[in-house]
Structures are given as structure tokens and as C-alpha cells.
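Sequence and fold
=================
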Amino acid sequence: MIKRSFLVLSSVLALFCADVFSANSALTFLRITPSARAVAMGETFAAVADGVDSVYWNPAGLANMETMDVSLMHMFYWDSSIYEYLAVSYPMSQKLKLGAHIIYMNYGAIEKIAETASGSMGATSGTFSPFDLCLAVSAGYQLSQDIQLGVTAKYAMQTIDTDSASAFAGDAGVLVRMKMLDENLLFGGAVSNLGTQISGDSLPLTARGGFSYKIGLLEPSDLTVAVTAYYPFDTGKIAENIGAEFWYQSEIAIRAGYKLGYDVGGLTAGVGYKAVLEGMFGYELDYTYAPSGNLGDTHRISIILFLDEAGGKKGSSGSTKGGSKGKNMKIAPTQQKKRF
């Protein structure tokens, strides 16, 4: 009854995932990337991983968190589709930090087309509203001064009218301070969506890895540059990501990136603003523009809340306000009280 609508929806979703080349995987919505900040930086965040959004990009980054942070994102998608994202981090101890995230995508009302006895498509018979859902929990652990590890367990499902599919999956990540070369150099890598098959189709297994480096222009560590590689296992082809983020006086961020080797790649750009509410918490507001080929452009808006007793003054997103201090992993003296 809904065969045609299912095929159309799957085709459009495959385009939206902006992967390297066309691929056949189940639950491909897991590849749609959240976090306005991370996307603006050319999706290089697996090598940066210095905030609550590490729960999606590289769970090893959770080991940096020293406060409870909450990240929310809304994405303006094609037609009437919406994409919502919520992430939270919580420090359990000096070495162990926990996190969780939820992804919800609704495609709006889609016209249902009945299938005749001959197999052709007949008249419409109402509408249905497909949706995707992912529930995940993560943990980051400080193995040593220079090495952090992280894992994520997730449950994902996709519902189209009366049909649905679901699977369990996991992610794993690592962050390493390359102090034998330079204390400001960080390697990060993550493998995502290791899990069960659905009707013979594998989950969208991917790997990301690369390097980030902090530079002091006007202030210590106010510029972060990153380069990563992206490998979706179902295509067997590699894409590259380049990104940068500059913070002016720890309040205004300018971000840009470039994605090479993707079907839908090119320039990404965004801005951010950070503030502290006296005696309450800090917050960061981010906006990102990214192209999506024939489907038009996408616009992501994120807000991050830094819920700590110091009113969000502990340093976040490479700055000195909001979130964690970044002192778990040994860092250069000029970077103290800043997230690496």
C-alpha cells in the first residue's frame, strides 16, 4: 500500500545524508549530522570533541566535561520535514563522564497511494507521517593524561505508516594528545553505528578520524583548525573535511569549513555567541549554513546551556566561558582553564 511512498522517502533521505556516494544502508538518518557548531566547522568535530555534542561525534570527548551541559538543535529541512536533537553531559567523577542524546526526525504528512491488484499505483487513500528516532547513552573515560576513550550504545527506529524497523548499535572513539610533537595537537577518531542488520541491510557504519590544532592569535587558543577523513563502509570511498573556528574575546565565534569528495559537499559556515547569566548559567547560541545540493540549503540553530555553579564561567567550545575547564587531559600552560 505504501510501497511507492517508502521508495520516494528512502531516495530523498539518501540524498539528505550527504554521504560520499550513493549507498544502500538501513536507518540512514543516523548519518544526518547534528550540532550547528560541528557542521559549521566542516564536520571535523571528531578531532575536536570538546563539548557536549561529542556524544554524537566522538564519545571520548565526554571525558573533558566537568559540568552538566545541555545542547539542543533544530534544523530547517526540506519541505515540511523537521529534525530535532537533544544532548546532555554529566560528570560522574574526575575520570568518568556520562552523556546521552536523542534524535527525532519527522517528514510531515505524505500522501498515501494505494497499489492495485495489477501492481500499478492507484488513487490516494489518506496520508501518513513517517518519523525516525534514536535514543543513545554514552560514557567517556580519562585513561591517562593524554588519552581518552568513549563508547555509545543506541537504539534506532524508523516508522513509515504501519511499517517499522529498528536496531541496536554502538559507537567508539578515542582522543590522544600528541605531545611528542606539540601539546596543542590532538588526534581524534570514532567509529559509528556498529550494529545489527535489518532485512539483510547493514546499518550506516562510518569512521571519522583526523587532527585538530589550537593557535593563539589575539588570545591563547582562540583559533582551532582541524582536518579529518570520513569513510562510510558501504561505499568504500573516502572523503575529507577541513574546518576552523575563531573566538573573539571568548564571546563571538566565526566558523567555516569545506567538505571534499562528497556527493553533496562544499562550503559550510556559521557564527556563535556566548554569554553568562549572573548567578545562573551560561549559554551559547550557534547558527550554521550548509548546502544540500538539489534539495536546497540547510540551516541549523543550536543552543547550549552550561549548567554549573560558577554561572557558566569555566570555559567551553575552546573559550573561557561555559562548560568544562579541560584540565583532565594535560595541556599547555597557555591553555589552562580552557577546553582543548
